Structures are given as C-alpha cells and as structure tokens.
From TrEMBL:
Keyword entries, A-Z: Signal
Classification via NCBIfam families: TAT_signal_seq (TIGR01409)
Protein name: Tat (Twin-arginine translocation) pathway signal sequence
Tagged with keyword Signal: yes
UniProt lineage: Bacteria, Bacillati, Actinomycetota, Actinomycetes, Pseudonocardiales
Residues that span the membrane, as ranges: none
Organism of this sequence: Saccharopolyspora shandongensis
Keyword hit for Kinase: no
Signal peptide: 1-29
Length: 327
C-alpha cells in the first residue's frame, strides 16, 4: 500500500510511542528533547521593505554580533533575500530576537552582479557563519541555483568575494541544483574536518533531497554523493531548508517538507558522525492560519537572554513572510 505522506509527516515517534496524527507535541515530548516552538509574531513583510524587487523574501539567518564585532548597528543581524530575479542578499538589524528589526538602508549588500566574479540571474539563500579562526563573518549564498558561493566580511555588512564552494559538477550526474546551504562548525576527526555543510540537491527526477559535505576550514569541501535525507524515506515529494542542531550529545538536521507533503518542519537524528538516519517526524507543525497558511520552512535558530527562538519562512513559497517562534 502506498504511504500516506501527510499521515507520515504529521506523526512522530518518541521512545517507541506513536503520536496521533495532527496532535500537538507537548513540550516534554518534542522530538529530540527540543523546545516546543510556538509562533509569536511576524518580523519582516516584503511590502514594508524599501528594497522589494519581487514582493517575496525567503531563508532568514540570524546572528548575534554584539560580542563578536567591534562596531555594530544592532545586537542581532538578520540576513534574508528575495529569491526571484534579481534576488539580492539583504540585512535587517535589531536589539532583540523578539524584534523589531530595521531594514538596512543600502540593501542589497550582495547583488546578482559582482564583477569580475559573476553575473547571474539571481542570488539568494544567505547563511552567515562566524568563522572563529578568521574572526570574520562568512556568507554562503546561491546564485544561480547550481552554485553556492562564499563571501567574507569583518563587519557583517561589507563583503569581499572569495569563491564558489559547491556546484552541480561536484555532485553525481543528473544533479541540477545545489543550493540553500548552511554551514556549521562541527568536528569530524575521522574526516579531518571542523566544518559541515547541509544543502538541498535537486536532480533531473525533480525530487529534492538534503545532502552534506565536510571541510577542514570552510572553503574547500568534500561532499557525500548519497543523500543525508532522502525525500522518499520521510514521505515527502521535496525537502529543503536544512539546519543543524545539537542536543543531549547528538546531532540533528531539521528541514522543511513542501506544502504538498504537509508543509511542516521535520527532524532527523544523524548523530555526531552523520551515520544515523533516525527520522523523528514533525519538529514544528505549521498552522493553517495566517501567516503560515499551512507552510513553515527554512528555520534558523538563536538564543536571546536564555530564551530559544526560531526564525523562519511562514506562508506559501514566494509569497510569505519572515516569522518568529519562541520555545
């Protein structure tokens, strides 16, 4: 019998107990012991932004900069982007993860043309990493969908181009997209790595999976050619927007399914060496009401004064907002 994808996606296992379809996860039973995040408010809406070329924004990444950079315009920098052409990596800043966030007046801080390095239809999906050794903010972004690039900054606002770090040519034949990458400091001694990347891969079959790679310094990468999260094994048509989390001595990947497959944020335990594939089900159950309207995606995480937050896309793809949930 064919798997009922929505039933699978709205079911989670915890300690062998099966949670009823559509039931809310109590805080004590959140997969992996993570907080039970609840929507609080919308942080950014396209129509309120000065730089708004396409009426849509995606893929937030929030970073505390108050204790890392010598001069800042806010305690927290929130990076985001339109996706459709021309896209553009954008910045908002604020003093709390509760908001409000103020749009940086000179967006985009990275455009779809950066001579002599590239000229593409669009750039999008910013993920910024505080690189401990370099003491820089490292920005990973895609443009176009077949290439993930790296730029570096001393202040989190003005970036210097570095290089392309991932292209479809680095993955198996039939790969059509390698994008929506996030990079994290994570030690893998057996691989000589201190950084890992999780990203979305599409193929000529037009089903999106989560893949991963590892690097000694965050610039030069080796990639596993097998999916880290296979869409079919979690009952989805497509998965994307991955983020790495750690809890209770283990490592997890959270990621979104497409709206056709439930529109929720899911979680899989991969273990500290990335050898596990323990699919735990729903991490965050999207609400049918606004602003989510049945879809939550591309989560990023932060802690402000001891309170955990999730910043994420809410709403239909390419017509949503950036929202905030509190744990």
């Amino acid at each position: 019998m064919e798997l009922d994808r929505r039933r699978f996606l709205r079911t989670a296992t915890a300690g062998g107990a099966l949670l009823a379809v559509g039931s809310a996860l109590p805080a004590s039973a959140a997969p992996g012991g993570f907080p039970d995040y609840r929507y609080v408010r919308t942080l950014l809406k396209p129509e309120q932004l000065k730089y708004n070329p396409t009426g849509e924004i995606i893929f937030p990444c929030v970073r505390g900069v108050y204790d890392r950079l010598s001069s800042t315009i806010g305690r927290y920098y929130l990076y985001y982007a339109p996706h459709d052409a021309p896209g553009g990596i954008c910045l908002a800043y604020g003093d709390s993860l509760e908001g409000p966030f103020t749009e940086y007046p000179h967006n985009p801080i990275v455009a779809n043309e950066w001579q002599p390095h590239y000229s593409v239809k669009h750039v999008s999906s910013p993920h910024v990493l505080w690189h401990r050794e370099a003491r820089e903010m490292w920005l990973y972004f895609h443009g176009d969908n077949n290439t993930t690039r790296l730029a570096r900054s001393k202040d989190g606002i003005h970036f210097t181009y570095d290089k392309a770090v991932l292209t479809t040519s680095m993955m198996p034949a039939g790969t059509t997209e390698t994008s929506y990458a996030r990079v994290f400091r994570h030690h893998l001694p057996s691989r000589g790595a201190r950084y890992v990347m999780v990203f979305m891969r599409n193929t000529t079959a037009n089903h999106r999976d989560i893949c991963w790679g590892w690097s000694p310094e965050g610039r030069n990468w080796t990639f596993d050619h097998e999916p880290l999260i296979d869409h079919a094994k979690v009952g989805a048509v497509n998965v994307g927007g991955p983020h790495l989390l750690h809890k209770n001595g283990s490592t997890y990947v959270v990621y979104n399914s497409d709206k056709e497959s439930g529109g929720n944020i899911l979680i899989t335990e991969v273990g500290n060496d990335f050898s596990r594939r323990n699919h735990l089900g729903v991490f965050y159950d999207s609400r049918s009401t606004a602003p989510e309207n049945g879809r939550a995606a591309a989560p990023a995480f932060g802690t402000d004064r001891g309170v955990p937050y999730m910043i994420y896309e809410a709403g239909e793809r390419l017509s949503g907002v950036i929202a905030m949930a509190r744990g």
